[in-house]
Amino acid sequence: MSPSLMHLAAFVTAGPGRPGGWRFPGSVPGWLSAGYYQNIARTLEDARFDLAFFADILSVPDRFGGSPDSQLRNGALGSMRLDPLHVLSSMGAVTSHLGLAATVSTTYAQPFTVARSFATLDHLTEGRAAWNVVTSFQESEARNFNRDEQFPRDQRYERADEFLEVAGKLWDSWEDDALVLDTEQPLFADPDRVHPIRHKGDWFTVQGPLNVPRPPQGYPVVIQAGASAKGKDFAARWSDVIFCSHASLESARDFYTEIKERAATHGRNPDGVKILPSVAPVVGATSAIAQQTFEELFDLVPPLGGLSTLAYHLDVDLSTFPLDERLPDVEVPGVEGHYQEVKEMTEREGLTLRELGKRYGGRVEGGFIGTATEVADGLEEWFRQGACDGFMVQAPYQPGGFEDFTRQVVPELQKRGLFRSEYEGSTLRENLGLPRVQSGEWANRVRRATEASR
């Protein structure tokens, strides 16, 4: 893909998602149906999106007031989440180009299982699999996996580093030509080209080899969303795509510059790390109609539903603070990027915690509200101003938000020469402009990380 073209990914929720959005008349509640996700997949592929991305949570969050009540009652972020790998399998069956990204935590999974699952998905979709790597940060998640409390942040990232190393070794345990399928000899797979990995580390002992041949992409595309210092370093080392969230063009541009510099420090081509900030456009035939739609959506957002989601993201019990005062400075065990976003929002607009909850639940990242032309203007500005390589498009309500964007904004972007009209390749890496990963790349990443730390 030409550097002048942006990438588009869709943030799809295997559940109700945004508090308030599921109540909007344009929302279709088919979250337990394969057909619901298959229709979204077709919509995205028809618009030539790079990929569909599913976040995941391994608990019903209970950080707000020590109870899951506010999540469940308001249909907030973690009130219901289907297993994204199964959802993606159903979407892969009705598409041929759309990339398929699932979130899997390195804190509560094992490398062999994850490497096997994504290698399988990559084969079944002919090279369209992507793994969103998360380290998990909620005590409620730890309690679902035989732990009384979560690992400290540093340990989570240490485990994640080794997890990625082991996954890379397992994907490389089959040479590219190891599957022979010679019926005459017979020789199904050449034993000399399939290797045990014999990994023994601080966190994992894995014999190998994998029982799935090397993935079509070499490694599935790796996505990450770290915004802390540790997270940024991890992302710059391992990620092909970085998903982020910003309250302004300026903060997005600063993040973009920093990540590209960190990637270069790790000996990587900065163009090989694609940065996609989150946007949630509200599109209308006129500016007034778009604004009215936004206001209707915003009115449906319960403040406690938004605060409950923010409490989950920050891993801070926000119920302990007065609702009609500003959010104070707090230590954030959770997602540092979301804290910087709401801190910037609070300081800029003087929001009380109650107002912040409503804003966070109904936020439109980047402020993209308007006609297709106006939304495209905003996206073009961010793209041309060096704030991103494209966007992670969230729908304020599903599936209608994706339909509005793909039918109205995408043609405008195509008309401006900013987005593809046809897919360039057959694999996700090809469509992202990324090379196939050569065997042994995990060792290069580990070596470069060691050199960068000296």
TrEMBL record:
Gene Ontology terms for molecular function: monooxygenase activity; oxidoreductase activity, acting on paired donors, with incorporation or reduction of molecular oxygen
Record-linked InterPro entries: Diverse_substr_monoxygenases, Luciferase-like_dom, Luciferase-like_sf, NTA_MOA
Coiled coil: none
Transmembrane segments: none
UniProt keywords, alphabetically: Flavoprotein, FMN, Monooxygenase, Oxidoreductase
Domain spans labelled Luciferase-like: 33-386
Residues annotated for FMN binding in this entry: 56, 103, 157, 228
Entries under SUPFAM superfamilies matching the protein: Bacterial luciferase-like
Family listed: Belongs to the NtaA/SnaA/DszA monooxygenase family.
Name this polypeptide is given: FMN-dependent oxidoreductase, nitrilotriacetate monooxygenase family
Phylogenetic lineage: Bacteria, Bacillati, Actinomycetota, Actinomycetes, Mycobacteriales
